[in-house]
Structures are given as structure tokens and as C-alpha cells.
Amino acid sequence: MSDISLKSIIKETSIIEEEFPGYKGFIVTVAYPGRNALSDARKSATVEKINRRTQQVQQEFDEDKFLEKFVSLAIKGWKGLKVSYLQEIALVDAEGLDPEDEIPYSNDNAYVLVKNSPAFDNWITEMSTDLENFTKSS
């Protein structure tokens, strides 16, 4: 019997590349953020404030701050996001843009896309938090 320590083999995170369903060539690099990182993101998005009326400490959750941290944990990049695809998954003003032009990945672009595209938000949340996506054998 071997003496295996889970501490030495458990991974905090893992990264995969997946195509966004229905959008050929739009490949997203998705990370499994892990329990500790998600917990830290939730904690940093929770602030304590004093209620002036009751003089009691209240906790408030800043959804935008959490979303910003979650996006930076879960999305590590993308390629192939065309303007024409963006027009189908978010409300955009693409006048004067070539539908075949690609939108470059940046953390800010990823945050804006998740915030403004329910379809992409749901997909990235499901992909990044479902451990099975990261444990498939090659």
C-alpha cells in the first residue's frame, strides 16, 4: 500500500479550451477556479457597513465586484470572437465594423461580455464550476 498525501496531488485549478456552442472557432480558455479562490472572491465582494439607523453592522454583497473577480478567475483568454457572433449574443452597436473582425481578449472585454450576455454568462459559469469538465481523460 502506498503512502499518498492528498495535499501533494490535489490541484487548485485547471484550464481547458472549449468552443462556445454554436459559434465555430470561438474558443474560450476556461479555468476551474477552485473552492478557495471562489471563497476568497466572495469574501472580497462582501463589505461590512454600519446601518446609521440601527447602529448595527450589516454585510452587503457587491455583485459587480464579485463578477469582476469571477471573470478573472474563470476566463483566461479567447480567440475567434467575431463581431458577427457578438451581435448574436449581446446588444451591440456594430455600425461601421466588419462582421468578420475579431474582438481581442482582455480581462475588461471578458467582464463586459459576461455582464451583457446572459447566454455567455450562463455558459461560462456552468463550464468553470462543473468539475467534470476538467477531469475528462484525454
The assigned structural class equals alpha+beta
- Mind summarizing the main beta sheet? 3 strands, antiparallel
Strand order of the largest sheet: 1-2-5
Estimated helix fraction: 40-55%
Q: Provide the succession of SSEs.
A: HEEHEEHEHHH
Q: How many DSSP E strands?
A: 5
Using the CA coordinates, give the radius of gyration.
19 Å
| Tally of discrete structural domains | 1
Q: Return the average pLDDT rounded to an integer.
A: 93
Q: How far apart, in Å, are the first and last alpha carbons?
A: 27 Å
Residue windows where pLDDT falls under 50 for at least 5 positions:
none
Strand percent estimate = 15-25%
Count of helix runs:
6
Which overall shape is indicated by the principal axes computed on the Cα atoms? Answer: flat
3D structure, described in words:
- The chain is an alpha+beta fold and 138 residues long.
- It has one domain.
- The radius of gyration is 19 Å and the shape is flat.
- The two termini are 27 Å apart.
- The mean pLDDT is 93.
Short recap of the structure:
The protein is an alpha+beta fold and 138 residues long. It has helices at residues 6-9, 34-44, 63-74, 83-89, 107-116, 118-129, and strands spanning 14-19, 27-32, 46-51, 56-61, 75-79.
Structure keywords:
5 strands; three-stranded antiparallel beta sheet; two-stranded antiparallel ribbon; alpha+beta; 138 residues
Reconstruct the topology from this structure:
Blueprint: H1 6-9, E1 14-19, E2 27-32, H2 34-44, E3 46-51, E4 56-61, H3 63-74, E5 75-79, H4 83-89, H5 107-116, H6 118-129
Antiparallel strand pairs: 1-2, 2-5, 3-4
Helix pairs in contact: 2-3, 3-5, 5-6
